[in-house]
Structures are given as structure tokens and as C-alpha cells.
Amino acid sequence: MLTPNWSHHTVSRILPPSPADAKAMAVYHDSEYLDFILSPYNFSERLAGDLRHTEFGIEDDCPAFSGLSDYVCLVAGASLKAADTLQKGEAVIAICWDGGRHHAQKSHASGFCYVADCVLAILALKRSRIPSPLNGVFRKPRIMYLDLDLHFSDGVSQAFASSISSSNPQILTLSIQGRVSAGLCCRAMWGGRLGRRSLCDLELVAGND
Asked: Hey, which CATH number is domain 1-131, 3.40.800.20, 3.40.50.720, 3.30.450.150, 3.30.420.10?
């Protein structure tokens, strides 16, 4: 992270993450999914054929592996630590290098992503209050989520899709990605209504860097 008074002389600091517990992740994730993903016993060889693996997305590009439960807690905890550092004014930039799990869904894993750490961090930042530069009165923050990836940020965008109907949305999500399958995904989820106030999606054609 970089401190508020950072300059070219500033050296970034590395902060160890604190593993997130089930309560912290239940702010977004379903309890049944958390009960399953946080139990190491569910990923032992004895339960390799358990149908719940399919139910909760633990298959294909989201395989079970030793230490999965600890990994989920650490990824979520690291992104929440970054959000907390920003909230306290201890940094102006905070990076979680293993975060950004933008495909994880509320009730199942998806696309190499087991926990919606981005959503959890945004929700944490959303609960903070910041002083207005005009009169010092504390107000709700407005947060922009920028996603740069080959694929559409379906997990994060879906989590805040309800903001479309809000007259004063706090969250803006902007996903910039290639044309692999993003258009199909967007239309399937929101019927082509993206780009209204709080949800933006930009597809890049081949050759655009």
C-alpha cells in the first residue's frame, strides 16, 4: 500500500492479511455455500464424488484442492484488509495481488473464483462515511469498480445489478473486456439494459490494447 503522503521517495508497505471468517463473508455469500466451502472435510478424497461439489460449482475450472477452505478465507480477508486500510485513511492505494475474483457467485464458485472478494470489499467501502470537501458534512461514498480482463465481470456486475433502479446509486461498475462471450453473458443476465447509470460494459475488438 502507499500512505496518504506518498511521493517518489515512498516505499510501499506489505500488510499480512487476516483470514476472513464466515460472518464477514456472509455479508454477501449464502450460508449454505459458506458452510460447504469452509469445511475442509468436504474436499477430502472420501467425498470426491459428492454431488454437492456440482451444486456449489466445485468442478471443471473450480476444482477442489488441499487448503481450499483456508485459501478462500485468506483471499477474502486480504481484500477486506485493503478496504479497511483505505477506510482508515492509512493509504491512498491498496492492492490485493491474489484478489479480483470477479466470477464468484453468491451461492457457488465459478470461473476459477471461489469467493467474491471484490463484492465484499465494495460492500465494506459502501458502509463508510466520508466528509464532503465543500462543507465537511459526512456523506455516503460513491464507488467505481473498474474491471479489465479478457472476460466480463459477471459476478461483480450481477451483485450490483439492482443499482440500475436506484435514483442515486452508490456503485458504478465498468467492465472492459474482449469479445469472447461477454455480449451473450450480458444480454442473458440483464436483457441488454446495461449502460444505464450504474452498469457499464465495453467490449474491445481484436487488436485493441
From this structure: 3.40.800.20
